Amino acid sequence: MKQSQLFTRTSKEAPADAESANAKYLVQAGFVDQLTAGVYTYLPLGLRVLRKIQNIVREEIDAIGGQEILMPGLTPKKVWEDTGRWDSIDVLFRLEGAGNKEYALAATAEDIVTPLIKQFAQSYKDFPVLVYQISDKFRNELRAKSGILRGREFNMKDLYSFHLTQEGFDEFYEVAKGAYLKVYERCGLQAIVTKASGGDFTKKFSHEFQVETEAGEDTIYIDKETGEASNKEVVEEADWDNTDKYEIKKTIEVGNIFPLESRFSNAIDFKVPDENDHQTEIIMGSYGIGPSRVMGSIVEVMHDDRGIIWPKSVAPFAVHLISLSSKTDQKKIDGEAERIYKELTKSRVEVLWDDRADVSAGAKFADSDLIGIPLRLVVSDKTLDQDSVEWKERASTEMEMVGLGDIKAKVEDWAQA
Ligand code: ATP
Ligand code: MG
């Protein structure tokens, strides 16, 4: 894509109320726009990143057998009453429609997916069932702060599992844990599996995936001897004050997996006959990842004082090609840049070409650092004197000259590495 065509622009000023790196850089670089507290528009650059994260999640959840569906955001009061949650979810947005009919905006979807699966899975032969969606969720969060880390409308992948046996469920729970760890690794994040309370649903623990960052709201305690991490807010432990025993980290929760036992299936009397025609309870689990929060977390972990440093896997573009203005032969610079742009694009490398005329080299470099595309290639009088382009990776301080004839192969190798 040509940067001259991009309708968004970077801004010199960070938003006045930006408390965290993601709130600052994502707005300043033109990835997102805040409509109101906790509610964001994803602009072209930001949507490309969000889609990449969603696709990583999709690939890993498909790989463990999840079937993708899309449930509505607007949901009738009845489904929440049936599970007893209309009044108990404090962050539920409740609203009234025509004819005094009451609705909630989906904050999560156990209440919708359980009756859905009940319609289709009517015999033991139909199990297990694994369904997921990637959709916006709405929560009336008391404090929406820290940019896209905590939104009132935010993107979530939610997977639901339905098993007839505890062993089947336990086995899948571990498989899901493995898939989650792959998602974070592919996104360039080191996630710590953390024991957390099972809440109202189970006496067992749930597990959170926590990423270390100052911008996080959680505190986890890592047992120095066993390496086991626990969320202090939820796991009761007499020993928390023993600072010799634990390493303490500030973190953000980027995912959560939850044994639900038969809490939701029993609520709507969803049971099926087993091989011996005995009515059997259905054991559920729910598994959430917030792609929008993952995106914000990546910025928190990967930035410097000039801007974002995207990992290749989720970057809006792989290459930021920059053509500078010439003192002698603008046509030559533009021509070479266009040739490289077409050559790379043709071999499916995603390139943002800063082709803007009348923008200084300094301003182009500052924008490039702010936006954070992993590889910067510069075409200028100086580089063309050496029949080369300048190669610089965002995460490194080193630069090198690469011959015009070598650039395609080198970029392809780099993109695949
Ligand atoms: P938190 O403890 O941070 O409020 P939660 O435990 O309520 O989150 P879940 O209901 O388990 O979150 O949601 C699954 C995932 O959705 C979370 O792990 C997180 O990645 C994401 N998520 C939850 N709430 C928000 C939010 N307000 N804004 C952005 N992402 C969110
Ligand atoms: Mg949580």
UniProtKB/TrEMBL annotation:
The lineage of its organism: Bacteria, Candidatus Uhriibacteriota. Signal peptide: none annotated. It comes from Candidatus Uhrbacteria bacterium CG_4_9_14_0_2_um_filter_41_50. GO terms for molecular function: ATP binding; proline-tRNA ligase activity. The keyword Protease does not apply. Keywords: Aminoacyl-tRNA synthetase, ATP-binding, Ligase, Nucleotide-binding, Protein biosynthesis. The keyword Cytoplasm does not apply. GO terms for cellular component: cytosol. It catalyses: tRNA(Pro) + L-proline + ATP = L-prolyl-tRNA(Pro) + AMP + diphosphate. This is Proline--tRNA ligase. Coiled coil: none annotated. Its EC number is 6.1.1.15. GO terms for biological process: prolyl-tRNA aminoacylation. Residues 38-311 form the Aminoacyl-transfer RNA synthetases class-II family profile domain. It is an enzyme of class 6 (ligase).
